[in-house]
C-alpha cells in the first residue's frame, strides 16, 4: 500500500475524539471514496492523512515510512475552500509555481486561461481558483491526492473538468486518490471502492 | 432578520457624485497631496518667515488677524503665524523621529513575540499589557521626566510609549499568518522557512507596518503637544504648539480668541491629514480594496 | 410580467483600477432578464462567476460602491430604487444567509431573530419569533442559546427563521445547501417549498442542479452574466432531452450520475466577454452566426432560451 493509516485517532487537546481507530489505505493508481455526512470528521481525517495534523494515536505511513516533516510532501490535500489555500497578496503566476511549475498540458486540461495568471485570488471566482489548487497539487512529485469536498462548491461542468484531470493522472502515472465527499453519486461515479465514516 | 448581509453593507447603488468621479486611488493621491502641501507650508513657513517677526514689538500687541498678521499677534507683539509654523515644525520633526523609532521597536518586538517561542511571547505580551494599562499621557510624562525632560525627554517618552499597539497588531498578524491555511499548504509543498517568511509573511506584515507608521505620526505629534501644554515637555523658550496653546489659555477670557484658535486648527488639520492618509494607504495596499 | 419580482435587461458593471490611475469598466451582468412569481420556487443555477449571487445583491441593494446598475428591476409593480430597496430589505425581501457566521456569536439566538419581526398589530416581536420557532421545531431552550451551542441543523432552521419572521413576500436563499447530507438537504428544501406554497416567492440560488430540480417550479440557468435558459423544472427530467440551450445540456451531461462529462475551456471572464454568444467557444453547435450578435431570450417550447439554434 502506498498510503496507509493504521488505527488513527484525533482530538483537539483533551476534547472529545473526532474519530478513533480508523484504518484507511490507498494504493497507487487507486481511487478510494471516503463517504460520510457533514460534521462526522471527514475533514479532520483528510488533514491528518495529508500531514496537516499529526494523529493523536495510530500512525500514517507513506511507502512504509512516516510522512516527511519538511520538504515536498508526496501526499497533497485539496480542500473545499480554495480562497483559504492561496496567499491573497500573490499573483496566480506565483501560486502556480509553488511546489512545481504547472505545465501547459495541466493548465489546458483544467481550463486555466493565460490571462488569469496576472490576477490576484480575489479577482477569480471560486471555480477558477480551485483549478489552480488542483493544478498545484498535481505535481509529478505528488503520489497521493486527498480531495476533501474538492468540488462541492463548484458547478457540474467545472467539477467534471477537475475530475477528468485527476483521473488522467491516475491512469497515466498511478496517482492514488482519496475522494472525501458527502455525495454518494459523485463517489459512485469516481471510486474503485468506498470507505464509510460516521 | 433584517437582512443580515444588507445591514452589514448598507451601501446604496447610487453613490454621491464626488465618490463616483474620484475613485479610491484619486482620493489617496488627494489625501497625500493635501498632507504634503500642509507639511510643505508648515516647514516652509517655519524656515522662511524671518526671525524679525518674532521679536517683541510692544507697539503691535494683541492685534486681531489682519493681512500683515493673518493669525494676529500676541501680547508681546509677535506674529502668531510665524510662531505657529515654527511650533508645528518642531512638533513635526520630533513626532516623525519618535514615531519612526517607535514603529521599528514595535516591529522588532512584535516579530520576536510571534516567532521566538512561548517565553518571548509571554514576556512581550506582558510588556504590552503593562504599557497599555497605564494611561498614555501619565506614562509619557513620567518617562520624559525621568530622562530629564526637554526635547530629548519627550522624544524618548514618545518612543517608549507608542510601540505597544502596533507591536500587538504585528504580533497578531504574524501569528495568524503562521496558522493560515495557505502557509500550511505552502509548507507541505516544500517551501523553505526563509521563503515563507519573505514570500508569504512579509507582503502581509509590511503594509501593516507602513500604515501603523503613518498613523503613529499624528499620535506622536498630539502627545508631544499635550505634554508640552501641561508643562512637562519642551521648555518655554522653544517654539512649540503646546507652549503656544498653554499661553493662549491665559488670554482666552480676554477675548483674544485668535491666540488659541488658529494654532489649534493648524494642529488639528495636520493630524487629520495623516489620519486620512493612513487609512487610504491601507486600502491601497490591500488587494481586496486596491481596485475600488 | 411578473406580480412579484421582474428583472428586465439588467446590466451591472464595476469600475476598477488597472495600472496606476487608469480605470476600466467591467460589465459583470449583461442584459439579464428573469422574474419570480408568487407561489413559486425559482432556482437560479450556474457556475461561480456567472453573476447569480451578484443578482441577489442587486435586488437587495447591497452592491459595492464601485458598481453601476442599468436596466429595470420592479418589485410588486414598483421600480426598485435605492430608497424602495431600503424599505423592502428585511421586510418585504428577505435573505436566508448561507453561513453560521451571519449570526452574532455573542448574542442569544431568540433576540437576534426577534429584531427582524415587523412591529404591527399582530402581537409583540417576541411572539412572532416564538411562532416561527415553534413552526420549525425549535424549542424555548434554543431561543436562549448562543449560536455556537446549536447543531448544524438547528442553525439552518434559525437562519431560515430570521427570513420567515419578517413576513417577507420574496425570499432569496443564496447557496443554502453546500456540504449538506441528504436528510438535511431534504429538510431545507422542504422548508423553502412550504414558503412558496404559502404564496411567497422563493429565489433559490444554487449550483446543485439535482436538488434544485426536486423543489423548483422553474429554473433559470446563468452563464457569463446572463440568463441563457429559463424553463420549467420538469424539463430537466427524466433525461434532459427537453432542455433547449447547449450549455444547459452540457451541465446535465456533467452530473455525476449522467457520466461526469466535462466541457473543455472555461467561462469567459467578465473583462473579456466576446461579442455574440458567450458559450460559443465551448459549444459543439457554434456557427459563424453565433459570433455576430448576442442572442436574445426567446420563447421555445414553453421556456425561454438565448440560443439561435434552439428549436
Structural descriptors:
heterotrimer; B: 292 residues; mainly alpha; C: 311 residues; 8-stranded mixed sheet; 10 helices; 12 strands; globular
Specify Rg of chain B, calculated over alpha carbons.
23 Å
Number of strands of chain C: 12
For this structure, the quaternary state is heterotrimer
Q: Helix proportion of residues of chain C, in percent?
A: 25-40%
User: What's the rounded overall pLDDT mean of chain B?
Assistant: 80
Judged by helices, strands and strand pairing, the structural class of chain C is alpha/beta
Describe, in plain words, how this protein is organized in 3D.
The complex is a heterotrimer of chains A (198), B (292) and C (311). Chain A contains six helices and nine strands, in the order E-E-E-H-E-E-E-H-H-H-E-H-E-H-E. In chain A, the strands form two sheets. A five-stranded parallel sheet of chain A has the order 6-7-8-3-9, sandwiched between helices. In chain A, strands 2-1-4-5 form a four-stranded antiparallel sheet. In chain A, a hairpin with an 8-residue loop joins strand 1 and strand 2. The two termini of chain A are 24 Å apart. The relative contact order of chain B is 0.13. Chain B starts with a helix and ends in a 7-residue tail after the last helix. In chain C, the strands form two sheets. An eight-stranded mixed sheet of chain C has the order 6-7-8-3-9-10-12-11, sandwiched between helices. Chain C has a four-stranded antiparallel sheet with strand order 2-1-4-5, with helices on one face. In chain C, strand 7, helix 7 and strand 8 form a beta-alpha-beta unit. The interface between A and B is medium-sized, with 27 and 18 residues.
